[in-house]
Each structure stands twice: as structure tokens, then as C-alpha cells.
Structure prediction request, 186 residues.
Amino acid sequence: MTNKSTIYTRGGDSGETSLFGGNRVQKNSLRIACIGTTDELNASLGVAVSNLKESDLIEVIEAVQNKLFEVGAELANPNKHQTKAVNTFELGQEDVLNIEKTIDNLDGELPELKNFVLPSGSIAATQLHLSRAVCRRLERLLVKLSKQEEVNPILIKYINRLSDLLFILARVANKRSSTIEKLWKK
Prediction:
């Protein structure tokens, strides 16, 4: 009988974790906060997908989820340019352009927005609004990290655009479920 690998390693019991290449860092470091928030965003999107029926929206979100694994991998390898490691990830401008194209396509379904909308509506739309808020937190953390360490500037652009996409996806989810968007009342 072959032994299945265990999920626990005990390597993080002292409050440290390993980055790609074996460098140990504190679990409360800003880089780990970025990686953890990327994971949280991905899990949040999984909840949104579980509440969607529209295959095209699910396809968009699952593509984003896959890309978020690459974001996490890139963040976990801060020395990728120094090590000449193979199989490293680095987002590029085409990733940002792909999101913009998706935004433009989906936005064509929506009425013009002349007021702020409350983050509410269908379960899927509300979850997408929550994912957008997590995405904005990730963006703030990435900007903070970029002031202390080298960060691919495309990561910040990508996450900024992603929050816009999540807003549009929430609006589309509401529209397709015939849920009226609640407008902000001042």
C-alpha cells in the first residue's frame, strides 16, 4: 500500500512559512498577507461560481481563478529574476488587456450607470460584490508591498482591472436574474 502524502508538514508551527526557493518568512509579513488575500479572493470567487447558472460568467470567473493561482505563485517567488528558475509565472500586459476586453463585452449588456449602486441583489451578485471588496484590499496590500519590495507593476494593474470586472460581473448577474439594482440614496 502506498502512503498518501499528509497535508500537514509542521514547518509553519513556529510562525514562519517558505517561499519558492526555500526562503523562510514570517507568516505575518506583508508578502504573505498578499498571498493569503489572493487565496481569499479566489475562494470568494468559488462561492460566487457556486451560485451562478450562466456558463459564460462561470467561464470568465474560472479563468480568473486560474490566473489568481499564477498571481500567488508570482508573489511566492520574489527572486525569480535572480534565480533563473524554470516554470515561473509573471503576469503581462496581455492579461490586463484580456480583462479590459471582457469588461467591454459584458458592459454592453448593461444600462448606463448614473448613480452608485448598493452591493446587493442576487446571491451571486452579492458574492461578486464581496469578492470585489476583497480584490480592492489585495490591491491596497500590493501597493504597500511595492513600496517596500520589488513587485511586478502589472500585478497592481491586473488586480485594479479585476475589481472593475467583478463590479461588472455583479451587475450582469443581477440583470440576468432580473434583480433590480438598488441605487444609493443620499
Notes: The longest strand covers residues 16-18. The helical segments are 30-50, 55-75, 80-83, 93-107, 123-146, 153-176.
